[in-house]
Amino acid sequence: LRSCSPGRARLTNASRHAYLVARFGDIYAQERLDAETLLRTYVSDMEMVQRIIYIAAVESFHTAKMAYRHFKMRVRKTLSLGHSGPESLEDTVLDYIVRHEDLYDVQASVNEVIRSMNTNPKISFPPETDFIVISSLIRELCRVAFSMQSLIPPLDIAFGIDGELFNETKYRRSFDSDFTAPLVAYHVWPALLENDIVIVKGEAVTKR
């Protein structure tokens, strides 16, 4: 194993937090719209396009969090064999992960996300093509989600369900929403949470 400097994860936590929150916003503003444009060439229904992208985001976070858990377990098992301090084993593990995030097999996560999307009953795709067309969006989401797990505390996305009561603190309404409707018809983008508190609003469509 390559050596790691003690306390690196904690020392860089604030700067990594700021970068990852900004990157999440950039993905929403750029990669999401690129994926939307690409999907519109295959799917005419805008609601289905937005549902596909939202589910891609949710599945990317879920898959990356699982990958992080397994990665951390492997690192802890290896480092515990020769660990002697002065920092705690947990800090040593975190420092190693932060230094070597390039060892994360992001392509395996992308493949897993696409597999999950293929069996999701809420979304469909023309049979002649595949969700792989938005793999670049999925890859960036997986990378960001994986890195967010190494923050103290880690960041996560809000769980949203169709038909839930619209929450002003969690979401902003899409421009084509019925602004008097109290319920979420479907979600466009997830909200970002820190300790279950919204730090970046998501986007939802409200309709009667």
TrEMBL record:
<keyword id="KW-1000">Mitochondrion outer membrane</keyword>
<keyword id="KW-0175">Coiled coil</keyword>
<keyword id="KW-0472">Membrane</keyword>
<protein>
    <recommendedName>
        <fullName>Mitochondria-eating protein</fullName>
    </recommendedName>
</protein>
<dbReference type="InterPro" id="IPR031981">
    <property type="entry name" value="MIEAP_C"/>
</dbReference>
<keyword id="KW-0446">Lipid-binding</keyword>
<dbReference type="GO" id="GO:0005741">
    <property type="term" value="C:mitochondrial outer membrane"/>
</dbReference>
<dbReference type="InterPro" id="IPR026169">
    <property type="entry name" value="MIEAP"/>
</dbReference>
<keyword id="KW-0963">Cytoplasm</keyword>
<dbReference type="GO" id="GO:0035695">
    <property type="term" value="P:mitophagy by internal vacuole formation"/>
</dbReference>
<feature type="domain" description="Mitochondria-eating protein C-terminal">
    <location>
        <begin position="16"/>
        <end position="206"/>
    </location>
</feature>
<dbReference type="GO" id="GO:0005759">
    <property type="term" value="C:mitochondrial matrix"/>
</dbReference>
<dbReference type="GO" id="GO:0035694">
    <property type="term" value="P:mitochondrial protein catabolic process"/>
</dbReference>
<dbReference type="Pfam" id="PF16026">
    <property type="entry name" value="MIEAP"/>
</dbReference>
<comment type="similarity">
    <text>Belongs to the MIEAP family.</text>
</comment>
<dbReference type="GO" id="GO:0008289">
    <property type="term" value="F:lipid binding"/>
</dbReference>
<keyword id="KW-0496">Mitochondrion</keyword>
